[in-house]
Amino acid sequence: MGSKASEQRNRVTTALDRVRHQIGLVLGAAAGTRQAAEAELAKLELEQHIVRVGMNNSTSEQYAEWARHPASTEVFGLLSSVRGQFYAEWEAGPNALRELVAHNAPGPASQQPGNWLGRVGGNPGITAPGLWRVGSATVPGTDVPRTFDVAMPLLDESHLFITSAPKTRTAVDGIVQNLLMRVLSTFEPGAVRIHLWDVGQLTAILPDLYPLSRTSALTLYDPGRLEDLLDELAGHIRRIHATGMQAGHTSLREIRRASGQRVEPFRVAVLYGNGETLEPERARELKRVATGALAAGICLILIDVPTMLSTSVETLSLLDDRRAISSMTGPDLTVDLDPPMPSGQVIRAAGRIAEALIAKQGGPRAFADLLPTELGKESSARELRAPVGFFEGEAVEVVIGDASPHVLIGGPSGSGKTNFLYSLLGSFAARYSPDELALYLLDFKEGVSFAGLAPGRRDASWLPHAKLIGVNVNTDREFGLALLRYLADELRRRSAAAKLHEVTNLADLREQDPGGHWPRIVAVIDEFQYLFAGRDGVTATATQLLEDIARRGRSQGIHLVLASQDVAGIEAFWGKPAVFEQCTLRIAMPKARRVLSETNNAAVSAPKWHAVINHDSGVAHGNQLAHVPDASSKDVFNKLQHRLWERYSESFKRPRLFDGAHFPVLEQFPAFTDLKLTSKPRALLGQSIDVDEAACGVDLPKAPGRNIAVLGAATAEALSIMDSAARSLAKQHAEGSVDFVLSCPIDASVPAVQELAERLEAEGHRAELVDDLPGRVIDIAENLSSLDRAQVLLLYGVDASIPALEAKAPGQLKSGLDQLRVLLKQGPTHGVHTIGWWRSIARLKDTLGFAGTDDIGTWAALDVQGNELSPFAAGQVVHWSPRPGRALFFDRTTHGAPEVIIPFQRPEGLLDG
């Protein structure tokens, strides 16, 4: 294959040499023959007279003298032969030259504009013409003017350097635009891409070609950002070189001929300078690009860009707006430049090419075009691979695996980030079954981007691949932390299994343990920066976990997809680049910042509904532009979801949905519905913010300190916690085995407490709403050892009862407050547990007196600042800023640190007080 490519290169080089040789023949045939004749006649004395005097200045006498010379017949015969040879060769020269140009510059490459201008179809781009017409030239000094075409090599053959003259910008534009239209009209739409850069103009760079700008055929670059163009070209060269080296080829031309396909389009980069020397760094980069460009199918057209290129370069130096000197014809021949093609015709031709290119791409592609013909047929053992969009009709894939383990997605509001995520998830879910792919989806925005993937009131279907869906969690950073903890636990589980089977990656583990369940896990965290919004324990722990998962997750098939409007300003990652270094797959939506590398500005110019896909850590040469179809409109994704749901719903559980905007309902919560009679009752206070749908509960054994305090003045949340604790305990006690004693000195809350008492009574328990709390406390305290059933004291607003509790009746040694302290200290061991609501920490301290905090083993704090809670949390610093609908829970027997919980929604009919 290599020898054939060498032979082809030699044929092309020979053809160009023949063109140049034929031009030389045209210019020098007569001169060369005449010189040979004069050399032969040098020995003759007559030649001296001919040279000295000249035939045209001869008198009749001198001519007669020469005619009498013995050698005259031979001399004049020889001169006649020279003239004959000159004219004979000149007659053949132009014809031979025309034949060569026509052969090497077929069709639009050399013909005058006609029907071919803007023609669509044609050459598929596997081979390219060797020459492209720029004008014509006439040989001077002959009676009959002899004119021939002047054509230049481009594309695979040579770069072109144009030097302008004063006031010739219009002529230069005409030359360039003529060449570009010849190239565009020669090949089928999509086979050529034009890149335009002009140091002196923001716009109006060849404006007649602008109809192409709505396609990939034309790209314009900021005049101050030459590096953007050079980076893109350099990346293309590296990519083509890597592809060619793998296949054993050294150029794109060899790859095209070997495969018989146009694997990459031709690229023509037009750079307009101003005659001034480029910055040294830009000049060096331009030279590097030019050196490898031709082998990668890139041709540079440089206008007034002073630089020396160590590669094949043709030159065209303008004398004025009509004439130039060409390196193809030499300095002794002037080229008459072709006039610019009519502007209107060029605009219409560019429009036709653009329309044909759009039509070839199939027009706007739909989400359904991303999906395979059969669902769930792919294996995720090695990687996840699926298309997310289209470029020039070809699918653009995202690959998540060992080489690109984690994904960073950026895009400002309205850029299509959510739509891209739906395209990504849908394309993956269609190709891989839930046994191959497990999704954990979290959205920190104040929105419900992923809510539709879980069952709802209007649509009972769900995405079977989804195991966890979290929405409206912008204030529940703890839920994101819970997800990271779950992934870290799963990572340890998989690592242990891999060690057991003596393997190092997921693919080998699945091979060695075919009976195990080892799907690839993809965790999508939208607006992930909210995880690190505070300088607290959540940020510190989340940072540590995220770095560990990012570093070790790749080998065990656990992948992160981190999306954000802007990743700037995340203090948690200053000096800790581990996460971003592992996110080698970067996806930038239009106008996204800081997602790609600092010098890669491809997202700035990306059109709407597009994304820049980059598997090379954001470096420019890895850019792939993709049009992302509409995947988030009504009924688009749902159609796929219903197909998947109907196929897999019987074999896979519905996903866990966490919606931070909704309170859990106690009667519907699994932890409550699963409660049964037991001798070890557990009071449920709220929902844990965890991956599992778990409740936060307090065991109430007969042990010291097993009392519960609700702290804060948030009435609704306090009533909810008291209610759920009482009802969950009632469900675990047999009828008649427990007494509930309720006290509420807060008038506004009495109706709610009264209704709870009625509910408890209806469930077969004794529930008494007492008016005389001191008397009842004294009675229970004095009879602790003789009680025959469990007692639960539900004390609402204990702080409001303190004055009554402090009062002593005549003859009493202890007040009601003293006896309450006795119950808090000794009651739990006798089956008497107190669940009390104190509206301030100070009042709780007054209630406990000098007994310390040991008698309150569990508490749930509402609108109380964290620094007030330290005495009740074993002296540790408590980071807590109150927020509506949330409580901070701590159980000294089971917790190392407090956790945030969500109080249950109180049943309809109960007043909030």
UniProtKB/TrEMBL annotation:
Keywords: ATP-binding, Cell cycle, Cell division, Nucleotide-binding. GO terms for molecular function: ATP binding; DNA binding. It holds the Pfam family FtsK_SpoIIIE. ATP binds at G411, P412, S413, G414, S415, G416, K417, T418. CDD domains: TrwB_TraG_TraD_VirD4. Residues 393-598 form the FtsK domain. GO terms for biological process: cell division. InterPro entries: FtsK/SpoIIIE/SftA, FtsK_dom, P-loop_NTPase. This is Cell division protein FtsK. It comes from Amycolatopsis alba DSM 44262. The lineage of its organism: Bacteria, Bacillati, Actinomycetota, Actinomycetes, Pseudonocardiales.
